[in-house]
Amino acid sequence: MRLLQIVVLIIFLSSSPVVGQDSVNHVIEVHNNYFSEPDLRINPGDTVTFVWMEGAAFHNIAQVDSSSDIEYNGGFRSGDPQSAPFSWELPTDYTQAIGIHYYVCEPHIANGMKGKIIVGDVVDTAESGTSLASILISLAVIPTLVRKRVLRSSKPQQESFQPY
Ligand SMILES: [Cu+2]
Q1: What is the pTM of this model?
Q2: Tens of pLDDT along 40-56?
Q3: What does the pLDDT average to over 96-108?
Q4: What CATH number is attached to the domain comprising 108?
Q5: Does any domain span residue 12?
Q6: For residue 141, is it within any domain?
């Protein structure tokens, strides 16, 4: 009977919802020919709302395949270009999809009006220059750490001897 109670308790605990981090509501301001957060990193489950700021005219958000792409090829799109006041929330399909989502403003991509939303703990290849450097540094440090540990573990155990 005691065992049954324990099993029931374990099942109850494992089925109770895990308390994760609170989701964050991000706002990307749409200005004339730029986005306020062109490199936004979010956690899956956060929300992203684009808000057309006062005076912002004739903009939209259209997903593209890469940072250098300029043409919508399916995916999310806010619709035809709009002027303030207007807002558009990125569908949850995308805010929960781990990866890098690139987008442009179709009328103003020639002016460089574009951005990206990085969902989750994804390494952005465009930033891999710094990442590569940090990997190389870690690789250089590891042998030193290993050597220290080996030396420490091969020392005689007399350190633990405590004479009274
Ligand atoms: Cu625009």
Answers
A1: 0.67
A2: 999 999 999 999 999 99
A3: 97
A4: 2.60.40.420
A5: no
A6: no
Sheet of 114-119: strands edge to edge?
A: 39-42, 114-119, 99-104, 62-64
Distance from the alpha carbon of residue 58 to the mean position of ligand 1, in angstroms: 6
Considering 13-17, 128-132, 143-147, the range whose residues carry the highest mean pLDDT is: 143-147
Centroid of ligand 1 to alpha carbon of 147 (angstroms)? 56
Residue 22 structure tokens: 């609170």
Q: How far apart are alpha carbons 61 and 52 in whole angstroms?
A: 11
Supply 60's token pair.
């939209």
Q: Is residue 15 in some structural domain?
A: no
Give residue 55's domain range.
Answer: 25-122
Which phi and psi (to 5°) does residue 16 adopt? -70, 145
Count CB neighbours of 132 within 10 A: 10
How much distance in Å is there from the Cα of 48 to the middle of ligand 1?
A: 18
* Percent of the chain scoring above 70 in pLDDT: 63
Cα 106 to averaged position of ligand 1 atoms, centre (Å): 7
Distance 54 CA to ligand 1 centre (A): 13
69 CA → ligand 1 middle, Å: 16
